[in-house]
Design goal:
single chain; 676 residues; mainly alpha; 31 helices; globular; disordered C terminus; DUF6020; transmembrane; membrane
Length: 676
């Protein structure tokens, strides 16, 4: 009952976000909620719950569709309808019937060879990586790179720091001075006494890497552009490796192949399985003799993926704009997303090796390379996204609880790298070498609630709250700069000519202690407006009809690419504009455009997770909890329906669906049925 309650709650949340979407598109609020919104909400809830029920019934071997909707009946009906279009004299002709039978045989043969060929060209990691590199080649060749304001700020920070190291005197703290730390402002009380210009605003490791490469580029070519192109090419190769490694693990289960080989060498008698069809490895293995229920359960869940799954997953990575544009977009989110894809597949291997392998006694031990790769991917995630620290800590706790026997593996592969990276960052902050990110960045929901009240009902702000917020924010400026899609204007993020609502120059640490108390007083006095601010900032992540506030195509043709770059803007400008316009145009197509939007995959992943909860698949859920945590990150992020925040979930959705299919295979064990 509790599991179904969680599933219903998830469906209600999706229904609510879908129902209120039209209100916030029209810059309205819950006060304008009408019967039309209620109808949309009920329909979205019904569809979501219907999907969950269908998934659960299918996983239990129960009928999902009525008998009259069976595929066989549908095929026969289509065949009869097609025959009615053919003249009766021709339909009764022996030659016509012979031609139909021959075409059917050709279709079967062609399908079989096509499926076999698709399996063969994707049965190794290097093959998948080669396909991805060739399929993505046009992106770095014709578009070169994609970036926004972040990399410009990172290059500026590193340049100022380098000038300081070289002995050049520069302004630091002063009311009229404006330094890189004031663009995405970090409160001055957080600055050390000795001047430093490096911050953790955009992750210090990436800042140093991007800034150093751009510095070398200026030395060699006189501009940042060469370094930016090199960085984009390197990110594209990293993406190809991560995606190929992930696809290989989910599609081919390479540890299973290696374990069976080792077992047969040690003891030929334990090799109990042979391929059902050597020409079609996706059909799995045939056992010699009777199988126990556990052995059959293991066999049905460890069969390499078939041609359909391989085709769908490869097409997604080769054609989806989310993937294509992310390969060259120099922002922190794509780096984290591709590292997460790699990390997620390593977790799947550790999950699958909890069970006995085919022809092997006991459990398969994790491959040494897998443990090392997980440690490396954890480090990449940690240096590219600050919230990765919380994700890793929670994940370690869950895994130690769910798989206590391998607690050492999880400590070495997850906890140790996370502690080392986090400890190194803390040391840099405490020593004053790097300025820590301002905690105001994580208060997007609270800032939007205060700003919306200041805009719509300034008289409703209690006097005590005004007094507490006066040293921190200018409430009049907060109200003027409020934008329901994005909290950055309220935080005074951006260029120098901006509205200063956040008093980052003069606010103190003691002043910030009163922030939560003032916020709660405002929310308590204005509950409806505060609720509007919260929903308007995050509903788009769970409303499939909502267009992205900032799509990945933005990074192709924004002002930083077309104006700030030196020669990148002259490389195929017409083609770049065409590509940047075509992707949003495809996404704007009703229903069909959903497949290129990140929120479509977020919603489906949430529904799959609800079905897994109902099915009590706790072990695999332990590895899928990070997906739920990433949805929490989306809700608390500064902007609504910001597509780059949804990349990790979108990239691994196909593999989550494949896992659900494997976990839902029939669990009966009679050997005679298997042989048949």
């Amino acid at each position: 009952m509790a599991a179904w309650s969680l599933a219903v709650a998830a469906c209600l949340w999706i229904g609510l976000c879908t129902g209120i979407g039209p209100l916030y598109w029209a810059q309205q609020g819950l006060a304008q909620f009408s019967w039309l919104n209620a109808v949309i909400m009920v329909l979205a809830f019904g569809v979501s719950l219907g999907v969950v029920v269908a998934l659960v019934r299918w996983s239990r071997g129960q009928r999902v569709w009525p008998q009259t909707w069976s595929r066989a009946r549908f095929t026969r009906a289509v065949g009869r309808a097609a025959l009615r279009l053919v003249p009766s004299r021709l339909a009764n002709s022996p030659r016509f019937r012979t031609a139909i039978r021959r075409m059917e045989r050709w279709r079967i043969v062609a399908t079989r060879h096509l499926g076999y060929g698709l399996v063969r060209i994707t049965d190794r990691r290097w093959k998948i990586g080669t396909i991805l590199c060739l399929g993505w080649l046009w992106v770095p060749v014709t578009l070169l790179s994609a970036f926004g304001a972040d990399i410009r700020s990172q290059i500026r920070e590193f340049s100022w720091a380098y000038n300081q190291w070289a002995g050049m005197r520069q302004p630091y703290i002063g009311f009229f001075s404006f330094v890189p730390m004031d663009i995405y402002p970090t409160a001055h009380y957080m600055w050390p006494t000795d001047p430093t210009y490096l911050t953790d605003q955009h992750n210090i490791v990436l800042t140093v890497l991007y800034g150093a490469v751009a510095g070398v580029s200026r030395f060699l070519s006189g501009s940042n552009d060469l370094g930016i192109v090199v960085l984009s090419l390197g990110q594209c190769l990293f993406a190809a490796y991560c995606c190929a490694s992930c696809a290989d693990r989910f599609l081919n289960l390479p540890w299973r192949r290696e374990a069976r080989t080792v077992a047969s060498v040690e003891d030929p008698r334990v090799e109990r399985f042979t391929p059902r069809d050597p020409m079609r490895p996706e059909r799995g293995m045939r056992p010699h003799g009777a199988l126990s229920a556990h052995e059959h359960d293991t066999m049905t869940q460890t069969t390499p993926a078939g041609p359909v799954a391989r085709c769908v997953i490869m097409l997604f990575f080769l054609t989806c704009p989310l993937v294509l544009f992310s390969t060259i977009s120099l922002t922190k989110s794509p780096v984290f997303a591709f590292a997460f894809v790699w990390w997620f597949s390593l977790g799947y291997e550790l999950h699958m090796t909890q069970r006995p392998a085919h022809g092997c006694r006991g459990r398969i031990r994790p491959r040494t390379g897998t443990v090392v790769a997980m440690a490396v991917s954890t480090c990449v995630m940690m240096i590219s996204a600050k919230y990765a620290w919380y994700l890793i800590v929670i994940q370690v706790v869950l895994l130690v609880i769910s798989d206590r026997r391998r607690w050492r593996t999880y400590l070495v592969a997850l906890a140790l790298p996370a502690l080392l990276i986090h400890g190194a960052m803390a040391l840099l902050f405490s020593s004053g070498m790097v300025i820590q990110g301002d905690p105001i960045e994580s208060r997007g929901i609270q800032l939007q609630q205060i700003a919306r009240v200041a805009k719509l009902n300034p008289a409703g702000i209690p006097d005590s709250a005004r007094e507490l917020l006066a040293p921190i924010f200018n409430l009049d400026q907060m109200g003027d700069s409020y934008f329901q899609q994005d909290a950055d204007p309220v935080k005074s993020s951006g260029i120098q000519s901006k509205k200063v609502s956040y008093r980052w120059r003069s606010v103190s640490k003691d002043d910030m202690r009163d922030f939560n108390r003032a916020w709660w007083q405002i929310v308590r006095a204005n509950p409806r407006i505060a609720t509007d601010a919260f929903l308007a900032k995050c509903f788009g992540y769970f409303d499939v009809n909502d267009q992205p506030y900032v799509p990945m195509a933005y990074y192709l043709t924004n002002d930083y690419v077309t104006d700030w770059s030196t020669w990148i803007k002259y490389w195929q400008p017409g083609w770049r504009t065409t590509v940047a316009q075509r992707a949003p145009a495809v996404g704007a197509i009703p229903v069909l455009g959903w497949i290129v939007h990140g929120n479509f995959y977020v919603i489906l992943t949430l529904l799959l997770g609800a079905a897994e909860v109902i099915g009590r698949r706790w072990r695999i859920l332990a590895w899928h909890v990070p997906l739920l945590l990433l949805m929490g990150v989306m809700i608390t992020s500064p902007a609504n329906n910001f597509e780059r925040h949804m990349l990790p979930v979108a990239f691994v959705f196909g593999f989550v669906a494949l896992t659900y299919w494997r976990e839902s295979q029939p669990r009966t064990a009679p050997s005679a049925k298997l042989e048949a």
